Amino acid sequence: xxxxxxxxxxxxxxxxxxxxxxxxxxxxxxxxxxxxxxxxxxxxxxxxxxxxxxxxxxxxxxxxxxxxxxxxxxxxxxxxxxxxxxxxxxxxxxxxxxxxxxxxxxxxxxxxxxxxxxxxxxxxxxxxxxxxxxxxxxxxxxxxxxxxxxxxxxxxxxxxxxxxxxxxxxxxxxxxxxxxxxxxxxxxxxxxxxxxxxxxxxxxxxxxxxxxxxxxxxxxxxxxxxxxxxxxxxxxxxxxxxxxxxxxxxxxxxxxxxxxxxxxxxxxxxxxxxxxxxxxxxxxxxxxxxxxxxxxxxxxxxxxxxxxxxxxxxxxxxxxxxxxxxxxxxxxxxxxxxxxxxxxxxxxxxxxxxxxxxxxxxxxxxxxxxxxxxxxxxxxxxxxxxxxxxxxxxxxxxxxxxxxxxxxxxxxxxxxxxxxxxxxxx
Length: 426
Prior knowledge:
The chain is α/β, with parallel strands linked by helices. It contains 11 helices and 25 strands. It is globular, with a radius of gyration of 23 Å.
């Protein structure tokens, strides 16, 4: 099965092409791909543009807010989006990796796209590294088709990669006590609390499997048998699950010392109490393309100051800001570690931030992955209820057959393959 994880079903369905549009210009690809069409459905401005009233997936005008690009990458599994002018002529092709790298520099995506095209080009040049050029993404790619002039985009087509496996391992840290949740975690480990009809940890396993990662470890301590009884060897969930059993609490990174020596690929590490729509495959590919040793997922967290803030230089006041909102980047406890990092994990108790701080002076490259998707740290009863409400309101899986959408598929792909489309949890 070819899977497109956490793609809004309506986002794909709302942007399929009309059967009345010009025939696709197949060119050199005509021997490798087949095409199917369906009538157009209602336009969704969050993830596409229109040409003469016809919706187009992955096209946005440069006079729109840049947040529309951020939303597109957060809500779909596509690798690229096209920016056009008012005449529908191409201005830029924005790729997911480079856009995240731009966000990591602290740019404001509430400005117009036009204002960010130049900074994006600089990021694009900076990212032309061997590791980036070698990346073969498992996510779908959009291809633009042009009119006879070769300038105006008339429709877009989806290229779906057949190979969905990702060379990576997953580690879910499921050994915490969850004391702040009171009676709810008296005999149940926090990762096994029900959210939307299944445990939090199962949402994380599904995310990993949907993103091509089936080799999964779980660290256990408190009531570990509850976790093992539910997941077993993982085969019922499409995974191979192994357990790292702590005899004493080892912190948020100590369990890394229990991993087998056979780890040869990047390791995605996530706290077992996280509910998120983030596509873990995006993070792993970002890590690989950037050439980082450690990638830390971050997201902005605003703090409203209760007093005026005084800025000064050499004792001279340069500015007074009255009760400003100060934004910090917080760690959301989702990481990717290269195998070389694991050799430096000491035995015993250690937390991930402390481990990272010891590795930075040794020359390890630690990068930030801006998390633009939804995320909830289920640490308190109100947060648990918020997670349950949002998952209940929005999470469901859909299957969309190749025959029911305008897609481009490899001819040698099995005909029974289907696109599995998951709505975001929130």
